[in-house]
Structure to design on (499 residues):
């Protein structure tokens, strides 16, 4: 072929490829995943558990434009929740991930633990991550992310407590710089710049995982929100704030995160240490206010840039956070107060508006759901299930179930060793929870410990353990059998050791 003919041929091929790509990408939505930290669903005013003094108008408007899930369980604490999102697998299925060095130091082998964002890149997406990183020193820039502005906590343990200011931020793989300013404001500004076109090919669909550091402790509101919740509001103590908590396992019955002081007030013994119950409760919610503002600002930017109608928006958190319930000031434990997070999914014209789904869902379900919306083939077998049928018919009577497993700081095949099942850092033993319809079954892995069964509809505070009521034995056996089947389906390394 003559050089001139070859150039003509090459030009034609390039035009065909470009046209094919444009047609292919036109059907692919942008995806904005807003991922907050330690944010209980109680902090969102559209949620049934939220107190009357909670007000999140922007998040509520997002819920009014889509589907709000009443019961979402993304993980048990920050790192495994993120590992599940990055892989689509439960903590016990994430191979090579491990804690290493000074906390929160961690590492993984990207060949043994690939992240699914590569598949989106191969399908024509620009992938981006902004904000907190808590899953290995390697943040995946250049491999998993085309664009990344990251606070890498595992890499800089001495900076890892700076949730709200003076963070070491790395821009697109460059050396980290000490960056001032309120973190929620910074992340939102950087995300808005990205939505406006900074750092991406505007002809390609994009995926943005926006990971806020709020509302993690030490609860630190933006200056404009300090003392914005009236001090005269008397925040009631949860019903089992103090013991004896009958029907609970031993570690819960002896849990006392709050101690009464000489002034007659209760103070937490966990970070932020010295926090008084009433004041700290207000500060927690005041910290959420900047997240609510951020949601409004991001949606406005999408509308201003004419991207709102082609953007799938997901708002959620890594897990919730107990505030006095069952004696906790903690996440990790298997109760809704500890780990249930908000989950709202909105997509103009594609997801029904103002609907509420009572079917429980898990963080592992989000990943195959994103693949479904993007029309991208799953790169490996994932543990979750696509929940687009629930989005299409939120009030349907669904048999969709959710399994959550807590194995502390141990991942993958190393969870086979159940001698590690008591975590000395949290004093919370390993457990597996199985949610279906209105029931939750909890299997505490510690030998000799009791099982738990709760009817979330009639007992949302999980105060009455039904596991030893004669009339619930058939229900308990059924749920336990289904839980074991789900563990086997997802190749749990320890399933055969559960009695």
């Amino acid at each position: 072929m003559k050089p001139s003919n070859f150039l003509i041929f090459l030009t034609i091929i390039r035009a065909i490829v470009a046209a094919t790509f444009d047609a292919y990408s036109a059907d692919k939505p942008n995806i904005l995943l807003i991922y907050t930290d330690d944010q209980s669903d109680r902090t969102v005013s559209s949620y049934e558990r939220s107190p009357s003094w909670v007000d999140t108008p922007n998040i509520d408007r997002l819920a009014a434009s889509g589907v709000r899930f009443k019961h979402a369980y993304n993980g048990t604490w920050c790192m495994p929740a993120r590992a599940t999102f990055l892989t689509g697998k439960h903590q016990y299925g994430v191979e090579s991930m491990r804690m290493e060095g000074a906390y929160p130091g961690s590492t993984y082998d990207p060949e043994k633990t690939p992240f699914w964002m590569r598949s989106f890149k191969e399908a024509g997406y620009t992938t981006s991550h902004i904000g907190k990183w808590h899953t290995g020193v390697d943040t995946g820039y250049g491999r998993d992310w085309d664009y990344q502005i990251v606070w890498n906590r595992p890499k800089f343990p001495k900076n890892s407590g700076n949730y709200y200011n003076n963070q070491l931020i790395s821009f697109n793989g460059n050396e980290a710089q000490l960056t001032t300013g309120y973190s929620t404001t910074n992340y939102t500004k950087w995300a808005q710049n990205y939505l406006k076109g900074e750092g991406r090919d505007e002809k390609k669909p994009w995926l943005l995982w926006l990971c806020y550091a709020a509302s993690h402790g030490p609860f630190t509101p933006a200056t404009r929100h300090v003392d914005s919740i009236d001090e005269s509001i008397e925040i009631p103590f949860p019903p089992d704030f103090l013991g004896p908590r009958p029907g609970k396992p031993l570690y819960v019955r002896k849990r006392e995160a709050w101690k009464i002081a000489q002034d007659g007030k209760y103070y937490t013994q966990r970070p932020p240490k010295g926090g008084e119950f009433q004041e700290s409760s207000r500060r927690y919610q005041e910290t959420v206010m900047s997240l609510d503002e951020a949601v409004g600002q991001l949606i406005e930017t999408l509308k201003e840039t004419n991207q709102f109608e082609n953007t799938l928006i997901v708002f959620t958190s890594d897990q919730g956070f107990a505030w006095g319930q069952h004696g906790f000031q903690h996440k990790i434990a298997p109760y809704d107060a500890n780990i249930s997070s908000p989950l709202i999914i909105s997509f103009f014209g594609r997801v029904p508006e103002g609907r509420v789904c009572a079917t429980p869902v898990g963080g592992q379900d989000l990943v195959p759901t994103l693949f479904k919306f993007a029309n991208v083939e799953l790169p490996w077998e994932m543990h979750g299930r696509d929940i687009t049928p629930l989005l299409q018919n939120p009030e349907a009577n669904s048999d969709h179930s959710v399994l959550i497993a807590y194995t502390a700081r141990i991942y993958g095949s190393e969870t086979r060793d159940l001698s590690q099942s008591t975590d000395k850092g949290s004093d919370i033993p390993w457990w597996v929870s199985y949610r279906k319809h209105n029931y939750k079954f909890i299997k505490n892995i510690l030998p000799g410990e009791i099982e738990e069964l709760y009817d979330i509809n009639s007992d949302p505070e999980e105060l009455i353990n039904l596991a030893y009521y004669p009339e619930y034995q058939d229900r308990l056996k059924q749920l336990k059998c289904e839980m074991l089947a789900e563990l086997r389906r997802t190749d749990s390394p320890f399933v055969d050791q559960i009695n």
In short: Residues 6-26 have pLDDT under 50 and may be disordered. Residues 30-400 form a domain with the Alkaline Phosphatase, subunit A fold (CATH 3.40.720.10).
